[in-house]
Every structure is written in C-alpha cells, then in structure tokens.
TrEMBL record:
This is Small ribosomal subunit biogenesis GTPase RsgA. The gene is rsgA. Its cofactor is Zn(2+). The keyword RNA-binding applies. One of its GO terms (cellular component) is cytoplasm. GO terms for biological process: ribosomal small subunit biogenesis. GTP binds at residues 112-115, 166-174. It is an enzyme of class 3 (hydrolase). It comes from Edaphobacillus lindanitolerans. Residues 63-223 form the CP-type G domain. Signal peptide: none annotated.
C-alpha cells in the first residue's frame, strides 16, 4: 500500500502524485456504495495495478471540502476581482468571502486592472479597499501585464494549497498564464453582449507553483448559502465575529437584539455600513430558505 495526493481528476480517472511520480488510478467500487467520491486534494492510500495504474483504497480525513468546485484540503482562496471592466462589486466580494470563510479557507483578495481607473473610480473604490485590508484581509492590487505580480504573490503561495476563484470575466486564466506561461490556458475576451466572461476552465487540477499548489478550477459555480444556518453567518464576517463577545446575548444574530456590539460599531462608524447591509441581506436569504427535510 502506498499513499499520495490526488492532483487531477479527469474522465473518471484520478491522477495521484507520490514522491515525484504521478500514477493514474480509479476508486474502489466500495466508494460508490458508500456515496463517497475521491476529490482533487485528497490524500489517499492506493495499490499499484500494472505499470502505471492504481486502485485507490482509502481516503484520509479531510481538512475541508468544497462542493463546486469539487476539491479538498484547501488552505486559502485567491479571490480575483477587477476594479473595472467589469466594475468592482463589494456585495459580490462579500458573498464570495462569506462562502469561503464558511469552509474554513483563508481569503486573499487580488484586485486587477488598476490601470483602467480614473480619479473618480479611485476615489469611489479606495474606501472599500482600505476597509478590507483594515479588517485583516491581504489585498493585492495589480495592473494589466503586471511584471512583478509573481514576486508579490510568492510569499502568499509558498507551502499552501490555493484555489483561484472570483468574479467572472476578470482574467483568472490570464493571471495563471502570467504566473505559469507553460500552462497555455485557454482564455476568452469578455463577452460584450453578456457583460461577463465565458467559462474556459473545464476540470480541477492542482499545479505546483511557488513552493505550493495552485488549483486551476472552473471557479465557484454556486454562491448560495444552502450549507449555512443563520447561527453560522456571524462567524463568516470576521470583524463581526471579533465583536460578538461584547454583545449582551450569547448567540446574538446582530439583527434586532438589544445591546448588540456589532450594531453599535456600525452606528459609530467602526464597522462598515455596507458590510452590515450585506450581512442582513444574506441572513434574510438564509432565513427565507425553504426548510430541508431528511429523507
């Protein structure tokens, strides 16, 4: 029995990396019977079957697992958002941050196309950028064709498994190509008719880069909160989570409860009104969700 890590899943095969060698494998039939699917990022036990084939016999306990994209054991997410074309959307970024925080994955915000901004754009966006940085999120600002991007990303990627995701049409594949030209990933221009980019990445793969692993994925195809309960949401807004201990009531949802530290911080300007408005919107979405019944 040997062990390794699934680095790619394609057409029913799993490509397992072990000490400089990649071997193609299939999962045991028992996985299907148990409703278990091996995922890219899984650490697995396998038995060699032939010259370059293997049977995956067991899956180690996962640190976390994402559903869409299907990947396990992720340390952090590089969230790629443009400042312009398409325009920066704080609400969409907050939605991504909420989903990523809920999985226990650390976000890094990468803002592209800084060179397209005029003075008015800069004045509008700077308070948002400063706020996200101020509450503890790493924020990297880039320009089109940024030659120094690889060097600035290197400290964040080393020793980590990073998933790349974010806003449609912002150039995630272009960013990966700039880091690793040998990939020659397919990229498309933004569709003027739709105002968004077309999906160009079709499967999930972990690629060695910068002393770590970067996942090239189709990105998050679902940004709903079906896996979240209303009690989970306060912990997904990191600055609210830090204030929760100061609320009068344990388990405060920061809605209508008296002596709520989060609402007080919003009123005083210590916490951002736009973040609280998004929090309330997301909370209502969770509350309005149809009840789920176990079969």
């Amino acid at each position: 029995m040997e062990n390794g890590q699934i680095r790619k899943a394609l057409s029913g095969f799993y490509y397992v990396y072990n000490d400089g060698r990649t071997i193609r494998g299939r999962g045991r039939g028992v996985f299907r019977n148990q409703g278990v699917t091996p995922l890219v990022g899984d650490f697995v036990d396998y038995e060699v079957d032939g010259d370059n084939d293997a049977v995956i016999m067991g899956i180690h306990e996962r640190k976390n697992e994402l559903v869409r994209p299907p990947i396990a054991n992720v340390d952090q997410a590089l969230l790629v958002f443009s400042m312009k074309e398409p325009d920066f959307s704080p609400r969409l970024l907050d939605r991504f941050l909420t989903v990523i925080e809920s999985y226990g994955v650390d976000p890094i915000i990468c803002l592209t196309k800084a060179d397209l901004l005029d003075d008015g754009d800069t004045g509008r966006l700077r308070p948002y950028i400063d706020y996200y940085s101020g509450i503890g999120y790493p924020v990297i600002e880039t320009r089109i064709g940024d030659a120094d991007l690889a060097g600035r990303l290197q400290p964040f990627l080393e020793g980590k498994t990073t998933v790349l995701t974010g806003q449609s049409g912002v150039g995630k594949s272009t960013l990966l190509n700039s880091l690793m030209p040998e990939l020659e990933l397919k990229t498309d221009e933004i569709s003027d008719a739709l105002g968004r980019g077309r999906h160009t990445t079709r499967h999930v793969e972990l690629i060695e880069y910068g002393g770590g692993l970067v996942a090239d994925t189709p990105g998050f195809s679902s940004l709903d909160f079906d896996h979240l309960e209303k009690e989970d949401l306060p912990d997904c807004f990191i600055e609210f989570a830090q204030l929760s201990d100061q609320c009068k009531f344990r388990g405060c949802l920061h809605l209508k409860e008296p002596k709520c530290a989060v609402k007080a911080a919003v009123e005083s300007g210590a916490a951002a009104r736009f973040r609280y408005d998004d929090y309330v919107l997301f909370m209502q979405e969770i509350i309005d969700r149809k009840p789920r019944y176990s079969s």
